[in-house]
Amino acid sequence: MPPVPCVTPATLRAPPVPSTPWVPLCGISRDTQLIERMVSVDPDNPVIKLCTEGMRAETEGRPDDARALFEQAWDAAGDDYEACVAAHYLARHQPTPELTLHWNRVCLTRADLVGDGRVKGFRTSLHLNMAKAHPDPDRAREHYTLAAAHLSDVPPGPYADATRMSIADGFRSTGVTGPRPVEPLLVNLFTRLRALGDLKALALLLPVYLTDLGTEEDRLRLLAALGMVHAARWLPDDEQAILGQVIGALTQT
């Protein structure tokens, strides 16, 4: 039997969203919800229709067609809201990091000019995109923090969970939050659970761990999830003992 790779914070980290059109599932879900929400508000909007066609071209492996459709959407934009939407998708199809940052900045600037609540639910994503695209760590931290500040505007569900996970990863990578003192014990526990193939325990614990933004509320969420697994007592004795150590250490922080 091949050895089980050690679980580390790096291997648990949410995958980064690249600047190419091909993004991980969390990015696809984010853009899908964005488009679905716009379609529900204005299904006949030509800019929204072009962006919908562009997303379909992306999923069919036609990036050149997708970019052309998003450029048409930008040209057709008649107000700041439509320009914000088109710029969001154009940013995904730029050949250089500088142009990617430019179009994400244009997107956020146009969102700030929209005078109503149409951009409220996806402002978190706009700041998240800026954070990922920004080469300046200080500015990236600023946008990760702003993304977190708007999380309460995102409806609960997989999209919100994936967005929160990306922000938590950004917090860790840019130093907004550091590892909790209990981190080595947690990593040891996750490594053992992975070796056991205990998907149930991992399913309960990893989402809370990976979406930890370093707040007291997050500490209590993590403590509650650990407590549920501990109370169920299905783990082997060694892992149950380590789990108890983790809970004890987290309770004291």
Task: Describe the overall structure.
- It is elongated, with a radius of gyration of 21 Å.
- Helices cover 70% and strands 0% of the residues.
- Mean pLDDT is 86; it is low at 1-29.
- It starts with 8 loop residues before the first helix and ends with a helix.
- The protein is mainly α and 253 residues long.
- The chain has helices at residues 9-12, 25-41, 46-59, 63-76, 80-90, 97-113, 123-133, 137-149, 158-174, 183-196, 199-210, 216-232, 237-252.
- Helix 7 (123-133) runs parallel beside helix 9 (158-174).
Mean pLDDT, all residues: 86
* SSE sequence, one letter per element: HHHHHHHHHHHHH
Q: What would you report as the Rg, rounded to the nearest angstrom?
A: 21 Å
Total beta strand runs:
0
Shape: elongated
| Number of helices, counting only DSSP H or I runs of 4 residues or more | 13
Distance between the termini: 39 Å
Multimeric state of these chains?
single chain
Which structural category fits the helices and strands?
A: mainly alpha
Give a quick account of the main beta sheet: strands, pairing sense, barrel closure: none
Low-confidence stretches: 1-29
What is the helical fraction, as a range of percent?
55-70%
The fraction of residues in strands falls at: under 5%
